Structure formats: structure tokens, C-alpha cells
């Protein structure tokens, strides 16, 4: 190759790589900026594809640029792959920082979970209690579940724990109403995946592939003004090491409603420090060896300190910011393209659990990474009770971030949502607004970012409901209004607890959200 041409190619490569790494992490809303971004990326890809080799070997500049790009790309993919784990580990660290650590600590949002607690897509219309246990530290753990509750046991990749098969039905993850105790309460024994001791009588044994396990309660109420019965149910919970009930540390039930925690995962390079802490606490799953190799390639190894150089720190920060924005693109734009991604062909309501598989493996041949990324960048916890179609059991979560014209929802406009008569929810229904960046409840100035059927919104004469979303309530519609924030987007989840057949056969369908004023 001509030396001048080689040097010119090397200069172009260095320039393009710098643009790639800085430009990829940037986002611009205007068309001209988008065009510039697309052109920058295309030029950078051209430069990488044409990185000069001399004598059949990469030049020093090519080797450096390609190695840095490989490090960056691996970091992006590690971020996306580990989202379920880091999302949940961030919840654990945030909770323990605020409420303390231990199997006996079960924070309860005793006056419901408001927008001051930062966590992805919580439900403000039932009581939440969330604790974290560690099998490596405390051995097998018993969760003594009270009656009339509903909850989830997930490992820290947010996979439902493998439970027993009873009467030909295999259970996983769920306890309470949709679990093997069917709402009657019972003792759940959480053990490692390779536990080989005899199954003790009187226990539902659930196996975990990770040391850390999420214990997540939902408790329902019928009167939002009287939460004492629901709180009493949670307070009857006991969590303790197997065989040590009498010597166990007494239960604590900190109040998350009065002492909110920040349990969100990082969107920058701090994400990888959190991932390194998670890896250090966890067992090595043989199924994860290739991905552990990906982590090792960016410096994260169990038993080794995570000590990236200053340049690697710079790349990791840009990789995290890029991956986070990619994950948001997966939910806002790509999810609807997936099989079953839309509930209705003529409406904007999307299904974050299309395929009815809590591990996003409905195909039987692969994990749908688009669905997986879309869910875990914005939400947490998965189980059959959330995913599988069960008439008058579990729940469904139709979600929308677009109005009837296909435009993204904006907090400065006013919208109307019409729900036809006979809303198919045997327990209750609700609508909740969320921050599209964090996925947390929208901090809109109201006591709660939601409205539910128990709040007794005003129905129309035919039993239908018109609900309103906007910065101000339309005149006379205050009881049917959820406040939004000007100059900020949001999305809506319509929750149907114990959905009826009319939802599944689609004889009942919610209207699209319609903009009624700018």
C-alpha cells in the first residue's frame, strides 16, 4: 500500500473512531441533528471496515482503534445482557442503604408506594413489600407466607425460581393466590439449584440459580382509606434460615412510604462497578461461562478487583450511556415489531410479555433479546402469574406511550382515555403514569401517580369511564384525572387484576389515548 495513502487512512480512522465513541452516546431530537449522527456513524463504520493493514497485519493505529472499539462494543453488550441482574441488584443495594440488610428486613410501603421511591414501574394501587435473601450467607431460607397475599420469588437474573409439581401442574416463581398455596398461605423453602437433600414435609421447595433471591409481596385492599388489614397481613410474614425459626433475628418492617429509597440502576459507567459487586457476591452458573468471558474481557472477574484504566473508564461510561439509550429504543420502538408485541392491530396498546414466557423464550429456540431488554430497562420481577393468560387470576399490563395518532405522550398536552363498560377485572383496575427515562412513577405533584377503580372515579351513564391525563384537570373532571408534567414525556400502564375472559377474547378493548388539547 502507498505510504501516503496508508497514513491518510490511519488519520481518517483515528478521527472516525473518536466521532463514533462520542457520537454514538449522543442523542438529538431534531431531524438535522439526527442526520448528522447517522452520517457520523456511517463514516465511523466505514473507517473501521477499512482500517489499514500493512504486510497483512494491522498497523499500530488500526490495532489500537479496533481494540478500543471491541472493548466498547463488548461493554455495550454486557450492559444489555446484565440488565435484569443489575436492575435487581440496584434495588437490593438501594434498599439496604435505606432500610438495612438481612433476611429479616422486609420493607413495606405501608401507605402505598408513591413517586418519591425510585424503582422501575411499581404499582401504587396495592401494598408492596420487598426483601432480599442470600443463600450463600444464610443457607436455605424459609418464607412463611400469610394467607390472602400474592407474590414472586425470583433469582437475581429475574428468573422465577423452580418450584414443585403438584397435581400435574409445575409451579415457578409465584406464591399466594397464583402459587401452590392458592392464597391459603404456606411455608416456602428456598434452596440452591443443586440442593440434594430430601424434601421436608409441609414445605413448597423453590430452587434458585443465584445466591441472592428477591422476595416480593403484593397485598390487596378494598378501601384505599383503610390499609390496616393489608398491613396486618404483611406483618404476619416470617423469613428465617431453615430449622432456625426460634433463633432467627426478629422481623423488621421498615416503612418505605415515609422513608423512600432510590433503587434505580445507573445509566453511566457506575453501572459496571455495580455489576462487578454483583459478580463478586454470586455463584458461578455453568450456563453463563461465555458471558462471563465477555465480562472478563472488560475487566470484571469473580475473585479479581475491577480496576479499569482511565481510558477504559472513559469507554465504559460512553458504553453504558449508549447501551441505556439502546435499551430505551428497544421498548419505545422495537417492541411493537415483535410477535404479539401489540395487543390489537388497530390500537397502540403494547404487550411487554408477548409470548407468555417469563424468560422471553416463547420461540422454544432462543431468548428474545428485544423483549428482554425492553422489559428490564423499564420494569422488574417476572413470573407466570404476571405473564401467562389466566382467567380471573394474576394480572395483565397493557401499556402505551403513544396517542391515537401514533405520537409519543407529552406532559404539556391533555389526553382522554375511554374505557368501555364492564372493565374485565374481577379484582380491580388502575392506570399509572411513569417517567420514560427512569421507569419510576411520574413525580407529578399528586399523592400517587395513579388512579384505580377503588378511588371511585365518576362513570358515564353506560358504565364506561373517561379518564384524563394532563397538566391541569378539565373542568369538573378532577376525580377522573391523573396529572402530568409539562415538557416531560410519560407512559401509561393499564393494570387489570384478575382479568376476565372478555379481555382475552378481546370482546372488550380499551380505546387509544386521544389528545384533546395541545
Automatic annotation (TrEMBL):
Residues 1-33 form the signal peptide. The keyword Coiled coil does not apply. InterPro entries: DUF1214, DUF1214_C_sf, DUF1254, DUF1254_sf. Residues 104-241 form the DUF1254 domain. The keyword Signal applies. Keywords: Signal. Residues 395-501 form the DUF1214 domain. This is DUF1254 domain-containing protein.
